[in-house]
Known about the structure:
The protein has helices spanning 16-30, 48-56, 92-95, 113-124, 144-149, 168-173, 205-209, 217-234, 237-240, 247-259, 266-273, 276-280, 302-313, 349-354, 356-371, and strands at 2-5, 35-38, 59-66, 73-80, 86-90, 129-133, 154-156, 175-178, 188-192, 262-264, 285-293, 317-324, 338-341. The protein is an alpha/beta fold. Strands 3-4-5-6-9-10 form a 6-stranded mixed sheet, with helices on both faces. α1 crosses α15. It starts with a strand and ends in a 9-residue tail after the last helix.
Amino acid sequence: MKVVIAPDKFKGSLPARDVAAAIARGIARADPRILVEQIPMADGGEGTVDALVAATGGRLITRRVTGPRPEMKVEATFGLLGDGTTAVIEMAAASGLHLLRADQQDPMATTTYGTGELLLAAREVGARRIILGIGGSATTDGGLGCAHACGAPVLMRCGGEATTPITGRDMVERVDRVAPGRSLDGIEIVVASDVINPLFGPDGAARIFGPQKGATSEQVEALDRGLRDLAERQGALEVANRPGAGAAGGLGFGMMAYLGATLRPGFEIVADAVRLRERLAGADLVITGEGRLDESSLGGKTAIGVARLCRDLRLPCVALVGSVGEGAERTIAQGLTAYFSICDGPMTLEDAMRCAAMMLERTAAHVIRLCGCDPSLRRT
C-alpha cells in the first residue's frame, strides 16, 4: 500500500512539513510496511515558502529589506526551489501586517517597497521565475512601492520622479503614474492569490480590507478614490477590474499593470511546482489536512484542492483537520472520501494547538487501521 501525504499547515500550530511528518509517524505506527510520500502543501498564503522549499529540496535565503513602513528594516526570508531557477516569495515577509504593532497599523503610512526588494534579491540569486504569494499585507499603495523598488519610475504630479518609498498617502496625494521599468525583464512572475476583489469600488481593496489594516472610515474613502484615480491616470481600468487586482491593497493590480505578472489561484501554483498530480499517481490513499474544514475551504484551500485532484484520479482522499465547521459536509462532493477532527474530546484551543502533532499521529494511525479492513486498499 502506498499513501501520499499532502497537507497544509495548521495555522499557529504546525507548519505543513511538521503536519506531514506527524501523519507519517502515525502511518508507520499502524503498519510500517506502507510506502509513504510526504508532500507539504500550501495555497499561496502563509507557509508557501516553507512548503515549496521542503517539497522540492530547495533552500531558504534571508535579506534585510524595507519593512511595511519606510523607516523600518526587517529580515525577510524567501525560497529558491530545487530547480535552482524558481524563487518563491511571501510579500508578508517584508510588507506584512504581522510585522507592525497595533499602533503602527495605518495603510496611509505603509509601503510594498520591501516586497520589490525581495523580487530583486531573487533575480540576483539566479531566479528566472518568481512565485509571489500576496496574502497578509499591511499595505494599500496600489503596488507602487513594489514597482518603484523594481526600477519602474514613479512620476509625481508636481513633476520629477519619486526618490523615497511610496506609501498609501503618496498614492492618494502625490503620485501621477508609473513609467515602464526594465529591472525584471525576462523573469516570469506568477502571483498566487485566491482573492477575487477588483482594485476599487464597493468590493475593492480599500473598502473590504482597509479597516483590518487600521484604516479609518475617512482613510478608506480617500484610498478608494486614490486607487480609482491611479488606474484612470495609468490607462489601466481594464486591469483594475480584473479579479484579484485588489489583493494585498492593490499589489495584484500593480504586479499586473507594472511588472507584467499573471495571477493564478495559489493552490494551483503550488500543486504545479511540486508536481502533485504526477506524484499522486500510483497511490492507494491520499491524506490531506488543514487547521479547519468548513464552507470557506471551498474557496481554494489546500484540502479541497487535493481532494479535487483525487476525484479526477479516482483516488480515496481523507482529510485530518483541527476542527470541523458549518458547511464541511459539502466538501464530500469535492472529492473527500471522509474527514476527521483530530480532537478526541473537549479541550481549549491552546491545548489543541499544543498537542496537534500527537493528535495527528494518533488519528492517522486509526485511519490506516480502518483502511486495512478494506480489501481494495490492501496489496497482496
